[in-house]
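Exercise: predict the fold of this chain.
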Amino acid sequence: MPSLGVVNVSGVQMSIHDLDGLDSSPTQTPAQTRSASPSRGSNKPHTSRQVEDFVTKLGSMASLREAISATDTDARLEAGTTKTQDVQAQTPAIPISDKQMAITGDGSTESIPKALSPIPTKTRPRVSAIDGSSDISATSKFQVLLIYFIFNLGLTLYNKAAMIMFPFPFLLTALHAASGMAGTQLLLARSVFTLKNLSGRDTALLSAFSILYTANIAVSNASLAMVTIPFHQTVRALTPVFTVAIYRIIFSSVYSRATYMSLLPIIIGVMLASYGDLSATALGFCMTLLGTLLAAVKTVATNRLQTAGLHFSALELLHRMSPIACAQSLIVAYATGEFDHFEPRVLGVKSLVILATNGIIAFGLNVASFEANKRSGALTMTIAANVKQVLTVVLSVIIWRVPIGAMNACGIAVTLLGGAWYGRVELMGKTAKSTESSMEEAATSKA
C-alpha cells in the first residue's frame, strides 16, 4: 500500500514532501525557519522555484490522467462500435412492406417489423367437456352429419343387395376394413395426412379399441340370430341412454333438462317404428343389451381418440384401425365357418364390381363417421344413428314396398320430430355458449 502523501499514477510517483523549504509545516518554528533561511530575500527566489516545479509536476499528472482516460474511452467506444456492427451484420434488413404500425405508450404510432409482432399459432378447435364435440359452427356440423347420413343410408341399402350374392357378414366386414387400408394408404402416399409417432402405450390403446370395434360387430350379429329384428332395433334405440350414462359416470358431464327431454321422443319413436314381433330368448336379450352398451362405448372411445390425448384425424384413425380390424374380422370369419362356404370361383365380374363399390362406399362412410363423431360429439352420433334407423325404414317402404302399420308410421314421425327437437336444443346451447365466450373475451380485452 502506498504511503500517505504519495500519489501514484501509472508508474509516476511524487511526494508532497518534495517542498522541503516551503513554510507550510506546522511543526516548524520561527527560529528554525530563520536558521534555515538567514535572509528573507535569498529565500524568496528558492521558494518560488519550488512552487513552479510542483505546479509543473501537477500539470504533468493531470495531462497523464486525461490521456489515460481518453485512451480507455476510445477503447470502449471502439469495442462497442465493433459489437454493434457485428449485430447489424447478422440481422437481416427488413423491408418497409414487412412492417406494421403499432401504438406506443403515448398514443402515437410507429412501424415495427412483423418479425417482432406476435406469431399466430395454429390451434385446435375447443372441445366441449360435456359430449366431446368440437366448438365449431352449426353449419359445419350439419354438413358433416348430412354426408354421414348419405353414406350410411347408401351402405345400408347396398349391403342388403350385396348380402344376397355374398352372404358372409364377417368377410364383408373384412372387405370394408381392407378398403379402409387401401384408401388411407393411397391418401398417405399423396401426403393428404401424416402419421404421429406412437409410444407402446398408444399402440396398446389402439389395439384395445380395435378389439372393442370388432366385438361390437360380432355381438350385434350374434344377437340377431337370437332375437327378432324389431326387438333388436328396439333395444338398440337405448344407445343414447348408455352414452349419457357413460359421460355422467366417467367424465362427470352434466346435461340440460331440455337435452334429456329431447331424447325421450327419439327413443320412444324408434321403439314404435320397430314395433312388431318382439320375441327373444333370455340369452338373446342379454346379448342385445351388451351389444347396445358396446355401441355406446365404441362411440365415446372413437370421440376421445380424436379429441383428447392422441388427437387423431379421421384418416389417421382409420389408417391405424383398418389392418387390425381386417385381421380380427378374418379370424372371426374363420371361427364361424364362413371360409368353408365361401367359393371365390363362383364370383363373376358383376359380383366383383358390386363388392368393390361396396368397399368404396364403406371407406367413405368410415371417414365421414369418424369426422362427424369428432365434430358433433358422441351423443349426437347416437341420436343420428337412431334417426338413420328410422330413415332406413322409410326408404325400405319407398324402394321395396315393405308394409308397415299405423304404430310404425307414428313411431317414424315421433322419431323425426324428436331429432328436430334435439337439433334445436343443441343449436341453442351452442349459440348461448358462443355468446358467453364472446362476452368473456370482450371483458378480458377491456380489462
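Check your answer against the key: The longest strand covers residues 99-103.
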